[in-house]
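Protein data sheet
==================
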Amino acid sequence: MSQSQDFTQLIARQNVAKPQCFVLFGATGDLAKRKIFPALFALFLDKKLPSRFCIVGLGRKPNTDQEFRKYVEDRLIEFARLKGDSKSRKEFVDKIFYLALDVDGDYSPLKKLLTEKEASSGTQENRTFYLAVAPSYFTVVPQKLKEVGLLHEKGSASFANIIIEKPFGTDLASALALDVELKKILFEEQIYRIDHYLGKETVQNIFAFRFSNHFIDHLFTSEFVESVQIVAAEDLVVGDRVEFYDSVGCLRDFCQNHLMQVLAFIAMEAPSKNEAEFIHQEKSKVLRSINKIDTIVRSQYEKGFINTDAVHGYRDDERVKTSNTDTFVGMRLFVDNFRWGGTPFYLFAGKALPRKYTEVNIVLKKAPFSLFPQSSQQNIISIQIQPKEGISIIIRTKVPAKTSLKPVKLDFYYDDYFSSESIPEAYE
């Protein structure tokens, strides 16, 4: 066996997940049906789930296992990136069990069910608990799990991990307080605070694009960059989620997490190792270098049209008719360090805009002297996160038979080089 083959097989073994039971709180909710179950099914089809696993869905609605399995299969057909066939869907949903459970109630039935299913599935008491519930339950659930003995002590041969997705608190003080409360119940290695946006292939590719192409990373400094623009636009109104959205708003729903994570990838220094701990350290340095943000615009959409479709205004909904919650945010900030000092970063996010897209534009400075003063187009490195994932670089070239210049794009799109089915969804 060659050294390269041995290394490949070693990596493959390391990437195989351990036997476990995946316990989903909020299993009948919107996030579960649209994202989590489709992601788990894609991992199942790609053989990235352990050979021994089970899934327990928890919700308030009464369901039998068969009723819930039918519900999940229907949602896979409706929402999944990879839909498989009837045989593969049946194999997957047969691993799913359901329990009606009040999040505030008694967790003894959950312990009983897990004990039974772990014995029959051979999952070795390894458990992953995903909290797709309201943030007010982020400490309630772990505490109740601990009370019935479903969380393991430090040093145990088995694991019991908790996954929590934003919003993690409503401000710095509440986020720190939540962290303190969680650490009274769990040890740090059990807590997974996630931002699904980091799972997007094009967001991850920012890191690879910079640090695997030295000439690109060399340009990512205030010496060459005039500004950085990060835009996340949606062409939909808030809709049925208005009560939840009103408690959060655009700034907390999108800017302080998703866009700040993208900014950190754009602005960070190269880590000493391509490992999570070292990447986290460099991103933290960037966020600590952001000075006070004093240029910010907040607004709401009003009644009007999105292209040709008539839409109501945000406050036209009786539930939020006096609300000041923002549905659009624009801000300018600076990263005060040696690499980026003086370069403005512009962040924009909002709903009810003309089209849906997310992209990063790195606008390069003009040369101090130009042989072609009639050309005003600047060079731009554009990273398209969605809907058409790719990277473009705008350059200028001579128009044939003329002395004038024309801006053109050097394009890379994922669809041109990779199968569309090979691009995983963020939750995968």
Remarks:
- Residues 110 and 409 are 56 Å apart (CA to CA).
- The first strand starts at residue 20 and ends at 25.
- The radius of gyration is 24 Å.
